[in-house]
Amino acid sequence: VDKPAGISVHNAEDSGNVLSILSQEMKSKLYPVHRLDKPTSGLLLLAKNPSQTRTLQKNLQDARKTYWAVVRGVPKIAEGAWSQSISSKAEGRRNPRGKARVAAQTKYKVLSSNAYLSKIECTIHTGRQHQIRKHCTINRHEILGDTRYGDRKYLQKMQQRFGQFELCLQARGLLISIEGKEFSFTAKPREDW
User: Fold this and answer.
1) Phi, psi at residue 159, to the nearest 5°?
2) Three-state SS at 68
3) Among 18, 62, 103, 125, which residue's CB has the most CB atoms within a 10 Å radius?
4) pLDDT in tens, 105-135
5) Gap between the Cα atoms of 100 and 106, Å rounded
6) Are the CB atoms for 26 and 45 separated by under 8 Å?
7) Which residue has the higher pLDDT, 98 or 80?
C-alpha cells in the first residue's frame, strides 16, 4: 500500500487509519507487517492473516528498504553512512540519540540539492524507531517538516516561506524475498516536493 502522510497505520483512536479503511473496502481483515509513522508517506506492507504476518516480518529483516527525504542543507559527502547509536524509543529534539542507545546505520545518497536543501535517498540496515529522522537531525540535516526532532525556529521560518507542509519523508522502495522469489515495490515520487 502507498500510505499517504497524515494517516496512522492502526491507531485505534483514529477510525480513519489505513487498516480500518482498507479492511472495510476489501471486506477482509488486514494485518500490518511493519508500520510507518503517521507523518511518513510511502510503502507499507500488509498481510491477510496472522501467519502471513509472522512470515513476512521474518522476511522483512533481510529486505532492503529505501526512503526519500528532503533535508536541511547539503551533506559534505554526497554518499555515505551515519552509524551513530540511537535509542529504540521515540525521543525529542533535545536529545534525539536518546538514553539507552543501540547500534544503528543509515546509508544515504544525495539525489539533488541547492544551496539550502537536499533530496536524499536513505537505506536503513537496522530498524530503530525514527532512525532516519534521528540520524538526519544528529548530523545537522533535519528533515523538512519534522516537528518532533527539527529546530522550531527553522521550521517556523520554512512554514512562513512555503506555507504549511508535512514531514518530507517517504518510504520509497522495498526489495523483499518471499518464498525464494524477489519482489520489488516502488512508491510514486512525491509531486508536492
Assistant:
1) -70, -35
2) strand
3) 18
4) 999 999 999 999 999 999 997 778 899 999 9
5) 19
6) no
7) 80
Contacts with 4 (C-beta within 8 Å, 6 or more apart), sequence order: 41
Structure confidence at residue 12 (pLDDT)? 63
CA end-to-end span of the chain: 20
Count of alpha carbons within 13 angstroms of residue 186, beta-carbon side: 4
Average pLDDT for the chain: 91
Mean pLDDT for 30-41 is 93
Mind giving me the DSSP string for 107-132? EEEEEEE-SSEEEEEEEESS--TTHH
Q: Amino acid identity of 178?
A: I
| Measured CA distances, 131 to 71, 113, 168 (Å) | 14, 22, 15
Query: Residue 14 has what pLDDT?
Result: 62
Amino acid letter for position 138: I
* Annotated catalytic residue 37: yes
The pLDDT tens digits for 21-30 are 998 899 999 9
Q: Are 187 and 2 contacting, i.e. CB atoms less than 8 angstroms apart?
A: yes
Give 85-92 contacts, CB < 8 A, sequence gap 24+.
86/128, 86/131, 86/134, 86/135, 86/138, 87/128, 87/129, 88/128, 88/129, 89/129, 90/129, 90/130, 90/148, 91/130, 91/134, 91/149, 92/148, 92/149
